[in-house]
Amino acid sequence: RPVEAPPGGRARGPAPERREPANEADMIPALVLGLGSPDRGDEAAGLAVARRLRARHPAGALVAESAGEVSALLDAFQGHELVILVDSSQGGRPPGSVRRLEVGPEAWLALPPGSSDHALAICEAVELARALRYLPASVVVYVIEGRCAESRAELSPEVEQAVRDFQAGRF
Asked: What is the pTM of this model?
């Protein structure tokens, strides 16, 4: 389970050490990590995807949730061949639309401003994991375009449909 930063900031201390699984049987090949804030409307889209996928108990995959802090993302990258991040954004695209971005083995992940609610943390975590030599073989970022991120709001109908599409395996 990803480790969250302490309240009010990022985790302190030295960079995390690379931790290899004790043996291949301990390695879970895939991680689906939903990012977001639970009480902020469409910003909870990644969390909603994770909760619904977890209920299906996907074979060969761990499904978890995170607030999207760099330290939590770094911890999540360890011990997985494939990491799928699901986040939300309010970048001007039609609500409920989904973008798929892949991290290349050498290329920097370039998420333009507004492309993801956690774009900066994702980019920092990817490049730090690359520098520490524990970037997974494949990192895929899905971004669900939201309509509303107001406090205590529910998911918009368009984002709710995108979450159902993830649950049904349409992405």
From this structure: 0.78
